[in-house]
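WARN retry 2 of 3 for item q-0093 after timeout on previous attempt; input resubmitted unchanged.
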Amino acid sequence: MIGQNISHYRIIEKLGEGGMGVVYKAEDLHLGRTVALKFLAPHLIANPDGRQRFLREAQAAAALDHPNICTVHEIGEVEGQTFLVMAFVDGSTLSEKIKQRPLPLDEALAIAIQAGGGLQAAHDKGIVHRDIKSANLMVSRQRRVQIMDFGLAYLADRTRLTDTQTTLGTTAYMSPEQAQRLPVDRRTDIWSLAVVFYEMVTGQLPFGSEHPQAAIYAILHQEPEPMTGLRLGVPLQLDRFVRKALAKKPEERYQHVEEFLVDLRTVEEQLRRSAARGSQPKAALVEQVAVDPALAAASPTQPSRATQRTAWIATGVVLGLAAAFGVFSLRHETQSIEPIAFTVNTGPSPPETYGGSSAISPNGHAVAYVAQDESGLEMLWLRRLDSNGGRVLEGTQGARRPFWSPDGRFLAFFADGQLKKIDPSGGPAVLICEAGAGLGGTWSPTGEIVFAPSNRSPLHRVSAGGGVSSPITKLETARGENSHRWPQFLPDGGRFLFTIRSADPENTILAVGSLDSQEIRRLFRVQSNARFAPAPGARDGYLLFARERVLIAQPFDATGLELHGEPIGLAQGLLHNVVSVFADFSVSDNGAVLVYRLGSGLNQLWWFDRAGKRLESIGGPGEQIQPRLSPDGRKLAVSMPDPFTGNRDVWVIELVTGVPQRLTFAPSNDWQPSWSPDGSRIVFTSDRKSGQGGLYQRLASGGSEDEDLFQDGGSPSDWSLDGRFVLFERAQQAGNPSLWLLPIAPRREPIPFSQKRFAESDAHFSPDGRWIAFTSNESGRAEVYVAPSPEAVTGAKPWPEGPRRISTAGGAGARWRRDGRELYYLAPDHNLMSVEVKTGERFEASLPTLLFKTCEQAFWTGYWQSTYDPGADGQRFLFNCPVESSSPVEVVVNWTAKLGSGGHDRPDHVP
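OK item q-0093 returned
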């Protein structure tokens, strides 16, 4: 078309092309001015209703008169082609500028403020753009910003979700309400403007992905990496403003764009004043302690991982020399010494779905952590900070959540449903008591241990010398409490901090208990566990906790139990599980050394073949757990967090399309879905009533109300072949689960499958219904067993033999092949094992054989609830794999030396 005349416009050159059409530079032959002609793609206005709506929108946009909105001169049509005549902007799109490099902070602020001014003018006239993105913002040579494509936004919004060619360039800027095809208003433009600003500052999109579907999942379910974690020099205050603009719920965002602009102008003015004084704005402390200051000053963006690794190695050498020559003694007198930060590379480490895999010793000289040994077994490791490597502690297979004795002589940890201790200098692991999954423990100077047996219990106490534990706190179900967890003794040795978990994540509370009574003092709302660290200059010390994956410290009076001063950001991108309200960090008893772990906490569903080859993924990275394939293999039930509340819900994914459909909507946690044999119903656990967990069922199609089945605790594992019984597990006194059968029709009281004192869970019927495979720690560790189904299920007396052990060296997660000829389970080293079996009146089994080693760490949740499922024919296996297989331990020595004021909101106090 170059050189042709269209109406009274002569085409000069092509400027660009996209999904909405083609743009040309042209000369207006009547008025002698340069303009831009945009020819719309024919399919956008093929529908008469769509055409009329477009014309109305374009007419409204043409009435806008603002220096930051590209003027629309005319709408024309030639030979069936519709085109817009717009003012020509001599410059480039913002997306082209960002491709070159992230923008200087002052330039990004200026561009966002100009674009926001244009949006404000449009919103004042009732016009919503709907398609704000960097490609729709032009920046002239004079640095004037103009918003493009007002009037086209309706067409973009109408077509983007149905167009199979939709690109990330469109999808990644969508608000949650657009992604869900809900009505939109001016707040969707505020969201998109915040995405553009994030992109300008960091050089990447907050919800970017290679696939639009994964980007939509991230928009709905995930939080973006804080800007302060991706670029040096970004004020925490600015990060907080952007997070507010990116709130999932529209009502929690800025309600008017001018509110956002006021905050952006505040930061702009602060930067201008700092520049005039020749100083730099204060950012997160992690930038001050984790990066060499010379390197930080040399580059406006985050150093490369290679550069960071060099800095950490260098400081590690300094630390070793300092320890050897006594330069610093890890006591409070070190306040004049600069903080030293380095990384302990642990190698592949288990995904801590329920948290807690590293612990610094009381004197700060050594760190204990969970990682794999050479054979792939998860073990407890110990590394002195003045050494170059760690060593494995033998006898700690399956260890989780270690914690130290006050004198540093022993390490306690949870494994195979038990609480154990070991002398790190040598000796075997010794049983303390039965302890369930174990959600944190703490050891008093008087030899008392307080620990959390499971995610459905109060705290228990036991002598460190061993014995039977007893409850020390009491759940108040009237308040919605469903567990007490993550205890830590305060310096007086009698009181302890702990976290109260409720069905409502907004009502998670930090509390204080005592060895002397069951009285509880509730302090304030939190998002994670908390730890006290003594330090001078802050009354008694600091309280450390996490909020939105930021590790925060705030002065805390451990006697009066009160916060003082302002919260201070210490580290970004913390490994933080919202559901279990746990963030992985630890502080030495003398307050000198801080350790923490970074990571996404996300996982990805993958299909594997029998040789262990990855075939394809399902959806994008997320927090989905407990995948269960439907009997026909066409659908997948999972538990995923609500994008707004954080509560878990049951979702069903169509495997052909990959589209998820939410099944449960109650304001509670719903998890552990299990299909009925005909695939028509799903039974699941919910804490919506008692807070303790109850069994519910509903139609898998979603077309029914939730039916209450049983309210006295429990998580379902499987259905009987005829659909009359649900096999489920419920916690015993010490938190260990036991197996029960719940009659569905007619409704009767549960029938115990086993009443042993051992932990038994994750049970599944064989396809013929005659046998049950389950996990038990009867042998002292988790093993897979098979036992006959009860007479109530089969109608015949079971074979008189007792449970038969199937696994040979530890195992869990037993699953049957659909034809009943093969049984699978996971070994402790995450090898997938296969056992050939014959069912019927007698049960026969071969020795286990290795199929393949699963993804570096297959996700496990709950108590031995392995999250994988085999395909019907045993040729494919669906596994939940972590996005990150390793999360090194970050160590900061003398971390309090440079604490300054921060910008985080303090926790909400509880009346």
